Amino acid sequence: MVSVFDREHFQGKCLEFTSECCSIHDCGLDNIRSIRVESGAWVGFEHHDFQGQQFILERGEYPNWEAFSGSLSYHTERFMSFRPIYCSHHSSRMMIFERENFMGRSTELSDDYPSLQAMGWFKPEVGSMHVQCGAFVCYEYPGYRGQQYIMEDDKHSGDYQAWRNWGSHCQTPKIQSIRRIRH
Amino acid sequence: MVSVFDREHFQGKCLEFTSECCSIHDCGLDNIRSIRVESGAWVGFEHHDFQGQQFILERGEYPNWEAFSGSLSYHTERFMSFRPIYCSHHSSRMMIFERENFMGRSTELSDDYPSLQAMGWFKPEVGSMHVQCGAFVCYEYPGYRGQQYIMEDDKHSGDYQAWRNWGSHCQTPKIQSIRRIRH
């Protein structure tokens, strides 16, 4: 369950959700300025219909926009739709590839990696990815910072052929840290 | 080793370091605007002499201020000193306590926790901490976001009695995610 508020610090109009919301306008909210995640893992989106910049939301309190956004350069303060992340497996496993369409050098990931380069990946970019089971968050910079992309085994059969389909506003193949989503 | 640059995207004057720097001014730089960490884990500080806001820096590329800062609300774009983090142990272990001075309810941590509440901690604050071995990064918000505090077993004997000594500019006892620092 997630509680969303139209003012910072859990003030103002409050709505509770147990399933996805494709447009907060249709629920009578203009914007979301604070969030309390009571259970599960969720992903928030900048635009309606699960488009635009993504925000991973795990259990806890997000009193303002800064708390759920991971990126400064692309500062919109818009939060228009969200949905739960279903993690059907207890374990998470994915492959990352040097080039698009699952070509070039590759490696398997099944842990959390605050620095892909520290664990042996040879450059700050990833060409393509395949999620075999579970769900991951991929980040532009080391240490789980910058743009976030949620990758799930039940979306596109877990196939992410190129950086253009990591998210609808993705502008770079840079991926420098990756971690599992767990409940 | 870490390479620092006085312009974004690894441009401008470049200096390389293999050990701590307590003042970049003394090294002839006005500011640091991009960083490439070649090896090890480092911590950067907003002010000279390892004071102020902290930034964990692991292997990889940080092309601009956004990439190494974790917090929007406290936007200074100053980066004046840094030092390596020594992780003498292969494993990391710490205790968190409900109240100051190691009082109240407690729990032991030895893994990465994107949400402390999801793993059973009962509120968004921590009263005090003791690092038994290794080093951790603690974050204000879930998902490794917001203000960062580096906690090490070889600083203050691993004792962090209250939120005022988590960092020289710490203003809140909020800690909602914690992870180990590994090389």
From TrEMBL, chains A, B:
<dbReference type="GO" id="GO:0002088">
    <property type="term" value="P:lens development in camera-type eye"/>
</dbReference>
<dbReference type="InterPro" id="IPR011024">
    <property type="entry name" value="G_crystallin-like"/>
</dbReference>
<comment type="function">
    <text>Crystallins are the dominant structural components of the vertebrate eye lens.</text>
</comment>
<feature type="domain" description="Beta/gamma crystallin 'Greek key'">
    <location>
        <begin position="92"/>
        <end position="133"/>
    </location>
</feature>
<feature type="domain" description="Beta/gamma crystallin 'Greek key'">
    <location>
        <begin position="40"/>
        <end position="86"/>
    </location>
</feature>
<dbReference type="InterPro" id="IPR001064">
    <property type="entry name" value="Beta/gamma_crystallin"/>
</dbReference>
<dbReference type="GO" id="GO:0005212">
    <property type="term" value="F:structural constituent of eye lens"/>
</dbReference>
<comment type="similarity">
    <text>Belongs to the beta/gamma-crystallin family.</text>
</comment>
<feature type="domain" description="Beta/gamma crystallin 'Greek key'">
    <location>
        <begin position="134"/>
        <end position="182"/>
    </location>
</feature>
<dbReference type="Pfam" id="PF00030">
    <property type="entry name" value="Crystall"/>
</dbReference>
<keyword id="KW-0677">Repeat</keyword>
<dbReference type="GO" id="GO:0007601">
    <property type="term" value="P:visual perception"/>
</dbReference>
<keyword id="KW-0273">Eye lens protein</keyword>
<dbReference type="InterPro" id="IPR050252">
    <property type="entry name" value="Beta/Gamma-Crystallin"/>
</dbReference>
<protein>
    <submittedName>
        <fullName>Beta-crystallin A1-like</fullName>
    </submittedName>
</protein>
<feature type="domain" description="Beta/gamma crystallin 'Greek key'">
    <location>
        <begin position="1"/>
        <end position="39"/>
    </location>
</feature>
